[in-house]
Amino acid sequence: KNPVPKIYRMRLFAKNKVLAKSRFWYFMKKLNKAKKSGGELLAVNELFDRGPNKVKNYGIWLRYESRTNTHNMYKEYRDVTINGAVSQMYREMAGRHRAHPNTIQIINTATLKAADCKRDHVVEMHNAKLKFPIIKKMPMVAKRLRSTFQAHRPMTFVR
């Protein structure tokens, strides 16, 4: 009908191309009243992060449907890629809120500077003097010297 149709571009997170296409038409129907029968997909491309070797802070704005209502949320994660952060978000939403992946709509994602982070579990990792205990690999005791119960706890830290 229209000789020069409008072209829409959308960044989605999906497991595969088939699910990505489905999500695209789901959002097009909601946002622009465009159906699959009245349009065509020009391309489906997988995007990769530029620096997947460095840990970054990610902010995710999302909407999800609970058993009773629709809720908006903002969450922060630390990961090496945006895909890893989104995976963390899906797992956390499933665990804490019992939200199915198809009820979650990602509104926006952003890479955050350290000063822009709000959530405690992300901010506590920004300390430059952060230290973790070094666990020493202890050799296994010979089978004849092992016991089921011991009177003291095993020493696993280097002093």
Task: Characterise this structure.
It is a single chain. The chain is of the alpha+beta class and about 160 residues long. The chain is about 25% helix and about 20% strand. It has helices at about 15-30, 80-95, 120-125, and strands spanning about 55-65, 70-80, 105-110. Strands 2-1-3 form a 3-stranded antiparallel sheet, with helices on one face. The N and C termini lie far apart (about 75 Å). About 10% of the residues are buried. The mean pLDDT is about 90.
Radius of gyration: 23 Å
> Sheet bearing the most strands, described?
3 strands, antiparallel
How far apart are the first and last residues' alpha carbons, in Å? 76 Å
Number of E-state strands: 3
User: What order do the helices and strands follow?
Assistant: HEEHEH
Strand order of the largest sheet: 2-1-3
Query: Which ranges are low-confidence, i.e. pLDDT below 50, for 5 or more consecutive residues?
Result: none
**Strand residues, percent:** 15-25%
| Derived structural class | alpha+beta
Helix fraction by DSSP (H/I, runs of at least 4): 10-25%
Mean pLDDT, to the nearest integer, reads 91
Number of helices: 3
| Overall form | elongated
Write the topology of this structure.
Blueprint: H1 17-32, E1 56-65, E2 70-79, H2 82-97, E3 104-112, H3 120-123
Antiparallel strand pairs: 1-2, 1-3
